[in-house]
Amino acid sequence: MLKPGGTPPPSDLLVGLGAADDAAVYRLTPDLAIVETVDFFPPVVDDPWTWGAVAAVNAMSDVYAMGGEVMFALAVAGFPREMSKTIVSEVFRGGRDKVAEAGGVIAGGHTVVDAEPKYGLCVTGRVHPDRILIKGGLRPGDRVFLSKPLGTGVITTAAKNGVASADVLAGAVASMLRLNRVAAEVARDSGAKGATDITGFGFLGHAGEMVKASRAGLAIDASRLPILPGTRELAEAGQWSGGMKRNRRYVDSSFGADLTIAPSVPGYLASLLTESETSGGLLFSIAPDRAPSVIDAFRRRGEDCWEIGSVLAEPVIRVNA
Description:
The protein is α+β, with helices and mostly antiparallel strands. The chain is built from ten helices and 13 strands. The protein has two domains: 13-130, CATH 3.30.1330.10; 133-320, Phosphoribosyl-aminoimidazole Synthetase, Chain A, domain 2. Helix content is 34%, strand content 25%. The longest helix is centred in the first third of the chain and has 18 residues, at 48-65.
């Protein structure tokens, strides 16, 4: 939307401030557009390599959420002056390794002195202008899929509080380290139009963005939602991040009576739907005639995916038991 006193955006800016999405997209030629995004955050785990790697995967997910491929990235970081150079080096190495796994390269960056350490990436990708995935691409009747389990926010919070077991944390780390590259490829090849990645605003926060942008609704089957091992026990023990209640207030204020969660949905799961996620999966929709092949396409590539609901004509969110 053009702000007062502003100038019209160039026609080649295909996705920008006018319709908020996961990344900006700018067309260079009729068959090539660049995807640009930036994301960074404080440590989510103790191990520096893992933090850098997770932050990189999380940042690159915005490119994948647009249906793009990663080309290169610039590091964005802030570290305390007294932080060990060995730790800093490991953070950068983690990011470099995951960008390389995505087929890209770290081409530079910028670092400042900061009391609270932060690390992330400014990522450049590419996509065909006719194959862009957007939050506003939900179509009534489509089937809805999620490419990673929920629970990373609960588990990393519990880890910070010293109450997450090593195997439960390892499961969350493995999920956070998994690129959404396969998810983007399958979604794109299956004819998806709508997609987003599940991160800090939680499942319902990001699903709600798709609903508003698409003017179409979602019916979610709570029993089909994938949950990381150990999540339920930690959630029932109250290991919520600070973002969970803020996210729930936002979703409630945005949708009011247009959001309904069936009373039979377990309390921990209803709360988990607004818990912040780190480096979560892609949420995307596929036409019903092509939906049956999606799970098999993931399995052929050695990954899992879950069909969790459908797209409604009315812009509401219904979470069924």
